[in-house]
Design goal:
This is Site-specific integrase. Residues 1-40 are annotated as: Disordered. Keywords: DNA recombination, DNA-binding. The strands form three sheets. A four-stranded mixed β-sheet has the order 3-4-5-6. The protein has helices at residues 45-60, 64-84, 93-105, 117-133, 143-156, 168-175, 183-198, 202-206, 254-265, 291-303, 312-318, 322-331, 336-343, 348-358, 365-368; strands at 12-13, 25-26, 208-209, 220-224, 228-235, 238-245, 274-277, 282-287. The protein has 371 residues and is α+β, with helices and mostly antiparallel strands. The protein has two domains: 12-156, Tyrosine recombinase, N-terminal domain (DNA polymerase, domain 1); 168-358, Intergrase catalytic core (hpI Integrase, Chain A). The protein has 15 helices and eight strands.
Length: 371
């Protein structure tokens, strides 16, 4: 999913219920609607507690990043409606069609830029979700939306910009740029090898705890065995087990790297990957943010001289946390079903997108034709 739109927006009306008054503003503008009514004094105490717990489950139905994007897109849309003098409720396909036209033409707000097709599609999904939470339905098949969106796709669609996959020999070069004599170097080696071998997203890498049920924000835990480790991960489609075998050598073994980090950092409980403070001498209690994974991949890729044919700015744009996940899928010479299972892809088609890159020019039709 693309990141939420940037740029300050004025406070929005609190429209969490159909017919909500525009004057009832939320100065934060970040709250998401709940399909459950707010607890009132008339509600019995035991039902108030149930309602609070139900709202907690509603939040758990989507990731924090998804909720932030939904809230940001709703603020963007309601801000545009207010500036145009249009009503947000009830949902009007004609209004939404005009809104996505404004997004595509770069006129959706002061200083706005033209939104990509993927961003516009994400905004539509956000609007659909937000209206659903308000007990209302937005008909995306209505001609005012569907036909306009089809025209936007035909006019503005561009090939996807995929991040560069980090291949095994490149990963080894990146590891060599890290100082194994420091806690930060040990941590960063473990993160790179763990993320690559597990085919993990950056949010998944930093979401692990050492053991089960150790933190409230943990997304899984690890179990180290003789032949490897199992990472128990709560992903988009529920819980899954990611099996990570030991490497062919100590220098490239993700299990050995993780064990070294845990041993010297003296971590036995809580978040797996943490901040290193005090000029690299101390390990703090706080979990690393997922953006640290992206920064690590960029930094080590640049230090290792990968894609030296590009200038530094272009090289930095090529790599991200996703480069580790793409690297495993692009280089593992195994049946695609095993790669699909490791990455947690819902469909084999998504896995084949990576393997097509791996198999490019393996069969050379130019030479096969006699040229």
């Amino acid at each position: 999913m693309s990141g939420p739109a940037t740029g300050p927006e004025p406070p929005e009306a609190d429209l969490s219920r159909p017919g909500g008054a525009a004057a009832d503003t939320d100065p934060r503008g970040a709250g998401l609607p709940s399909p459950l009514p707010e607890a009132t004094p008339a509600l019995p105490a035991h039902l108030e507690r149930l309602a609070d717990r139900a709202r907690t489950y509603v939040e758990a139905a989507s990731s924090a990043n998804t909720r932030k994007a939904y809230a940001s897109d709703w603020r963007h849309f309601t801000g545009w409606c207010r500036r145009q003098g249009l009503d947000v409720l009830p949902p009007d396909p004609h209004t939404v069609g005009l809104y996505i036209t404004a997004c595509a033409s770069g006129t959706a707000g002061p200083g706005s830029r033209t939104n990509s097709v993927s961003t516009i599609e994400r905004r539509l999904s956000s609007l659909t979700w937000n209206y659903t939470q308000r007990g209302l339905a937005l008909d995306r098949k209505d001609r005012h939306i569907a036909t306009v969106l089809a025209g936007i796709r035909n006019t503005h669609a561009a090939p996807p910009r995929q991040k560069e996959a980090v291949l095994p020999e490149q990963l080894i070069a990146m590891l060599e740029t890290l100082d194994r004599s420091t806690l930060r170097g040990l941590r960063d080696r473990a993160m790179l090898l763990f993320g690559f071998a597990g085919g993990l997203r950056r949010s998944e890498i930093v979401g692990f705890d050492v053991g089960r049920d150790q933190t409230e924000d943990g997304r899984g835990w690890i179990e180290i065995l003789d032949k490897g480790m199992v990472a128990f991960l709560r992903g988009k489609t529920g819980w899954r087990e990611v099996e990570i075998g030991r490497g062919s050598s100590e220098a490239t073994c993700p299990v050995a790297a993780l064990q070294a980090w845990l041993k010297f950092a003296k971590i036995a409980h809580g978040p797996l990957f943490r901040r290193v403070t005090g000029e690299g001498r101390n390990v703090g209690p706080d979990r690393l943010a997922d953006r640290q994974v992206a920064r690590l991949v960029k930094k080590t890729a640049l230090a290792a001289g990968i894609r030296g044919d590009l200038n530094e700015i272009e090289r930095a744009l090529k790599f991200s946390g996703h480069s580790l996940r793409a690297g495993l899928a692009s280089s593992a010479e195994v049946d695609e079903r095993y790669v699909q299972k490791q990455l947690g892809h819902a469909s084999a088609e998504m896995t084949r997108r990576y393997q097509r890159r791996r198999d490019r020019f393996r069969i050379n039709l130019t030479k096969a034709s006699g040229l």
